[in-house]
Design brief:
By secondary structure, this protein is an alpha+beta fold. The protein has 12 helices and 48 strands. Keywords: Signal.
Length: 884
């Protein structure tokens, strides 16, 4: 195991933050030292096992005014042991929130963090990495959230107090605001209290506390997890909600949420409320030279809509994913209104537009994958193409669409650009009525692997073609989807992106997403602020949906009069005049928050990022917001530590794959965080006549591997035009210590001597009988930590983009073993896993360009890979001999 030196008062720090689209852009925390470290303890001393530091009080105080929430979390801990002990403060924050303050009080002295430009903090960060200290973290999981963790040594019989502050603008969804407070102390707390103070300028319509949630599943209210919170209505515009379960109640609630009772409460406490609102142009609140316009008209008839569903059925959707997609679409189609029209576009290697009334495809683009290496197979001459228009959402068409979707199978690659281009053609062909709101609902679980596979080029092409500004709402399904890419497509095309977590409730997540966009009330909403106003946020919105809310804020001069909103409704062009009210509190931080959020969005899609980056940074530093362009610097004596980031929707390594908890500084209070350089762990495996049988861990059919979605032949189907059928390739159960296949005498074994870095024996982290929770397969294998190496540009990267993630220098990295990709190779061994299912020649990848179109991702490559003279090769098909 790794060896750590003891530092008295060592501070180890980790922050987990993501941006508004759940993209893993890193926001960092850096710890700097104000005093020299004390002498190290004797490395040979065997530490005792102290008790866990006790959290004797935890408070969560949230103050909401004008829909803007500021939350302060206070945690007080005491070390009851006779030796110094590490105390961990771990908080899960909403993904839309900005951390704006952190203070530690140790031995009566307070240490206050401050925000700094990220590059300025990098020197401290790099020094921390160089010194070898890791960040501690705890295994807490919650969707759409970020994890903030700090660990600090506490002297015997001493106390430490942590204060964390974060801020967010509450978004209205489904006609309510949700205040989501994550409570994960990791132990029962004697004094646990949550208090939410709501003060609004408008009368409160309702205030309620639904059942507690685990944070990882869409669940219904249950009496077993009713928080039994106290709700006090102070007056018509203010309320106080208090939740203070005793230790016994915490244990019961923790067990009901799926945890262990001895770990106490671990879940989300939620307060929901809404306000009485102006039925027409909304409310404009003014205070101290700032204004905010809350726009959510209600007395409007929903617009008719045209929905084009663009749905991924590539190989990686096989199994549970496509089943859940079918279940969700069955419900979503039932939600369509009779006056709506809709289309179904299915895509994998081939894009297919379904003529729903005929229950058949009448327009396709692309060739089935099996034609690529069977040139003797006669291709069917294409019939006359007919692009079907969108069809009315009557019961007959809905029933036929459901039946069509139920018969879908998952196979092939992922042609995203063609799918979206054809969807725009469908919209253009069908939508000639200004009173009909078109929209594209686009779902994929992978990356582009067929046709154009460069995300930037695809985004530009779709945006340029979308001259009518049709909103594109993107759904990324599972961890394999390129979430940043989908976010950019949607932001540049009047929509937004959401992530669908791969779990048992994925179909419910899809249904809930559709409900948010199912009732468009207005289109092209424009707020024309011209006089006596400056620094205004976004003023044009392509669609306003029922149950949501639009926000505009800015800085005003005396005499400001808000103009009416101009928008298109089911009755044509209308103007809606707002009502002005005095704010119940300051609006300055609300303006700063929303301005920074929108600047970061602009930065994501801008060609020149300098302008929005600089302005976002200026405001982040002024208002102490931790963002993608700013870092939080914590000063603490005797400490300097690196920072990692993590998405709180995952329980990240260690612990995720059975890595034992490694004590930091000789104490068991924290878990060491290692950058392993790969996902899923190291696996020993074997080749079968050049076939790579265990490059990655065993996966379920169509599951994603590092490097992209499964596509083409990666769907675990054997396709043949000769057989006209598909045969699933089952993955047998693997017992501990067993390989997938027994290697024949001439098979190659992974060579441990070819690791990209050298390690001492103590550096091995042994894993005993590791369990993969997804497929129930057991392993018993060591895991090696990898060091990163600068990757030189390889000309193959442009042809095979997925290589970038798997190449180090000029070697292909496979489970910690590197194979040369270039060099002189004289052998030409035969192999049996070529694309044309006949014998081939094991050839260097660069020398077999004919397979490039079908090498859509790393998964596909491993199915046709081989080794020749310790070089990574591919089983290149032999030329097909055609009889004269």
């Amino acid at each position: 195991m790794f060896k750590f030196s003891t530092l008295v008062g060592a501070l180890l720090l980790c922050v987990a933050l993501s941006d508004t689209a759940h993209i893993q852009n890193k926001r960092s925390l850096v710890v700097s030292s104000t005093e020299p470290p004390k002498a190290e303890a004797d490395k040979n001393t065997i530490p005792s096992v102290p008790s866990v530091p006790k959290i004797y009080e935890m408070r969560v105080d949230t103050n909401v005014s004008n829909r803007y929430a500021k939350t302060v979390i206070t945690s007080k801990v005491k070390n009851l042991d006779s030796k110094a002990q590490e105390a961990t403060f771990s908080i899960v924050t909403p993904d839309q929130a900005f951390i704006s303050g952190f203070v530690m009080e140790i031995d009566g002295k307070k240490y206050e963090a401050y925000v700094q430009e990220k590059e300025e903090a990098k020197q401290t960060y790099d020094q921390a990495v160089f010194s070898g200290h890791s960040a501690a973290h705890v295994a807490v999981s919650a969707r759409d959230s970020n994890r903030f963790t700090v660990s600090v040594n506490v002297e015997p019989e001493s106390k430490a107090i942590f204060y964390l502050t974060y801020e967010e603008l509450l978004l209205r969804k489904d006609e309510k605001y949700d205040i989501v407070l994550n409570i994960h102390p990791g132990q029962p707390v004697k004094n646990l209290e949550v208090k939410v103070n709501i003060m609004e300028s408008r009368p409160l319509k309702f205030v309620k506390t639904p059942s507690l949630r685990s944070g990882n599943e869409v669940s219904k209210n249950s009496p077993n997890i009713d928080p039994e919170a106290e709700i006090q209505n102070v007056n018509e515009t203010a309320a106080v909600v208090t939740f203070s379960p005793d230790v016994a109640r915490q244990k019961v609630l923790g067990g009901s949420l799926g945890g262990k009772e001895q770990d106490g409460l671990s879940g989300q406490f939620i307060v929901q409320y809404d306000v009485e609102r102006d039925p027409q142009g909304g409310e404009v609140l003014v205070d101290g030279g700032y204004f905010v316009h809350f726009f959510s008209p209600e007395e409007l008839r929903p617009m008719k809509k045209q929905v084009v569903f663009v749905l991924d059925t590539s190989g990686s959707m096989f199994g549970t994913r496509i089943t859940q997609l079918k279940e969700a679409m069955d419900s979503i189609l039932s939600e369509l209104k009779p006056e709506d029209v809709f289309s179904i576009v299915e895509f994998n290697t081939v894009v297919k537009v379904w003529n729903v009334p005929l229950s058949q495809v009448t327009f396709t683009k692309g060739d089935e994958a099996y034609f690529a290496y069977e040139p003797t197979t006669e291709r069917t001459k294409p019939k006359e193409q007919h692009l079907p228009p969108s069809v009315p959402a009557n019961q007959e068409n809905i029933d036929k669409a459901k039946k069509v979707i139920k018969e879908w199978e998952a196979n092939g690659g992922t042609d995203i650009e063609s799918a979206l281009k054809i969807a725009l053609r469908v919209v253009a062909k069908s939508n000639n009525d200004k009173n009909v709101q078109p929209m594209i609902v686009f779902l994929t679980d992978g990356e582009p692997t067929v046709g154009n596979s460069v995300p930037e080029q695809i985004t530009s092409a779709i945006t340029e073609l979308n001259t009518h500004k049709v909103p594109i709402f993107s759904l990324s399904f599972g961890d394999g989807a390129d979430r940043a890419f989908l976010q950019k497509i949607s932001l540049k095309n009047q929509g937004f992106a959401r992530h669908i977590y791969e779990a048992a409730d994925a179909y419910l997540q899809l249904e809930n997403f559709y409900k948010q966009i199912s009732s468009p009330l207005l289109a092209n909403v424009t707020f024309k602020y011209v006089d006596k106003v400056k620094n205004v946020t976004k003023t044009h919105f392509p669609v306003f949906f029922k149950g949501s809310e639009l926000y505009v804020t800015g800085i005003i001069d005396p005499g400001f009069i808000p103009p009416p909103a101009e928008c298109w409704s089911s009755d044509g062009l209308i103007q809606l005049k707002p009502t002005v009210y005095n704010s119940v509190g300051s609006l300055e931080r609300l303006w700063a928050y929303l301005t920074v959020k929108q600047l970061l969005e602009q930065r994501e899609i801008a060609e020149d990022k300098k302008g929005p980056t600089q302005e976002a940074l200026r405001l982040a530093l002024k208002y102490s917001f931790v963002t993608d362009v700013s870092s939080l610097v914590v000063v603490k004596p005797n400490a300097s530590s690196a920072v990692s980031t993590e998405d709180a929707s995952k329980v990240s390594q260690p612990g995720q794959y059975g890595i034992p908890a490694i004590p930091l500084s000789g104490t068991p209070g924290g878990v060491a965080s290692y950058s392993l350089g790969f996902s899923g762990g190291s696996r020993k495996g074997s080749f079968r006549r050049g076939y790579v049988s265990a490059f990655r861990r065993p996966m379920k059919y169509g599951s994603l591997l590092r490097g992209g979605s499964a596509g083409g032949f990666a769907s675990n189907y054997y396709q043949s035009s000769m057989m006209h059928s598909r045969y699933p390739a089952p993955i047998p159960p693997v017992a501990p210590g067993q390989a997938w296949f027994a290697p024949p005498p001439h098979a190659y074994q992974f060579a441990a001597s070819k690791l990209t870095a050298s390690y001492d024996a103590d550096d091995l982290i042994d894993i005993r009988h590791e369990v993969d929770s997804e497929d129930g397969v057991y392993y018993s294998t060591p895991r090696l930590p990898l060091t990163s190496t600068t990757t030189s540009e390889n000309p193959l990267f442009n042809l095979l983009p997925w290589l970038r993630q798997n190449v180090v220098g000029q070697t292909l990295l496979v489970e910690g073993v590197s194979y040369d990709m270039d060099g002189l190779v004289t052998a030409q061994p035969e192999c049996s896993n070529s694309f044309n299912t006949t014998n081939g020649i094991c050839t260097l990848l660069k020398n077999c360009p004919q397979v490039y179109p079908d090498l859509v991702d790393f998964d596909t490559y491993t199915k046709h890979a081989c080794v020749v003279e310790n070089h990574a090769g591919v089983c290149c098909p032999k030329p097909v001999q055609v009889e004269p």
